[in-house]
Amino acid sequence: MIAQHPQVERLLCGHLHRPMQRRFGGSVVSICPGTSHQIVLDLDEAAPAHFNLEPAGYVLHRWHSEQGFVSHNAVFGDYEGPYPFYDVNGLID
């Protein structure tokens, strides 16, 4: 169905408790992370399903008429920072 509509730039889905992106029907499918637990990343197709307590996340999608979609992935929480990369002497190592 998606392949019949080349104007479809992206199929946005959420949430399946594991962020993923893939090509599908000539477009891109973007799946958002869950806002609670996440499915454990295990690429073994025979592995049993498990969940863990990775940080909850979200994806902010912004449409630009010239560029199309720009998507930003983020996790919920309070984290130290922000820290500068540069000071008056240049790059901070």
Keywords for this entry:
single chain, 93 residues, mainly beta, 3-stranded mixed sheet, two-stranded antiparallel sheet, 41% strand, Ser/Thr protein phosphatase family protein, Metallo-depent_PP-like
Task: Walk me through this protein's architecture.
The protein has 93 residues and is mostly beta strands. The chain has one domain (2-91). 0% of the residues lie in helices and 41% in strands. The chain contains no helices and 9 strands. The chain has strands at 10-13, 20-24, 27-31, 38-39, 51-52, 57-64, 68-75, 86-87, 90-91. Strands 1-3-2 form a 3-stranded mixed sheet, with no helix packed on it. Strands 4-5 form a two-stranded antiparallel sheet. A hairpin with a 2-residue loop joins strand 2 and strand 3. It is flat. The termini are far apart.
Describe how the helices and strands are arranged.
Layout (H helix, E strand, L loop, with lengths): L9 E4 L6 E5 L2 E5 L6 E2 L11 E2 L4 E8 L3 E8 L10 E2 L2 E2 L2
Parallel strand pairs: 1-3
Antiparallel strand pairs: 2-3, 4-5, 6-7, 8-9
